[in-house]
Amino acid sequence: YLIFSLITSIFLINNSFAADADKGKTLFTKCKACHNADATKHKVGPHLVGIVGRKAASTDFGKYSDALKESGITWDEANLDKWLTNPKAMYPKTKMLYPGLKKAEDRANVIEYLKTK
Fold first, then answer.
1. Is the overall model pTM greater than 0.85, yes or no?
2. In whole angstroms, what separates CA 66 from the centre of its chain?
3. Which of 82, 84, 108 lies closest to 98 in space, CA to CA?
4. Which helix (H) or strand (E) holds 89?
5. Where along the chain do its domains lie?
6. Taking the CA atoms of the chain, what radius of gyration do you get in angstroms?
7. What is the per-residue pLDDT across 70-82, written as a single tens digit (0 to 9) for each?
8. Most buried by CB count within 10 Å: which residue of 24, 52, 66, 82?
9. What string of DSSP letters covers 21-87?
10. Contact 75, 51 (CB under 8 A)
């Protein structure tokens, strides 16, 4: 029991972090080629202003995939995390080509940044 508790404690300490919007802003530079988070102007992909709490495919962006249009999801932190992990795994017929952010900390930081937009 003691060994299990020690291993669990080490795991929790090493994997706990507070999401950082500034780090997320830096990571978001990868997304800027296709998305805008500073204005409601679309690029190759839809703008992401106000995305946290918004229904998927609900802006006037005219090129959403049918998969997103039909999803009915709201972009909360859990759905954004799943999406940013691997968009094609979440919706195989998505038009988004980005393969995803593999590190949970990076995803949390990007989501924290998007929450400020």
1. no
2. 19
3. 84
4. helix 87-90
5. 19-115
6. 16
7. 999 999 999 999 9
8. 24
9. HHHHHHHGGGTTTT--SSSS---SS---TT-TTPBTT-SS-TT--HHHHTT--B--HHHHHHHHH-H
10. yes
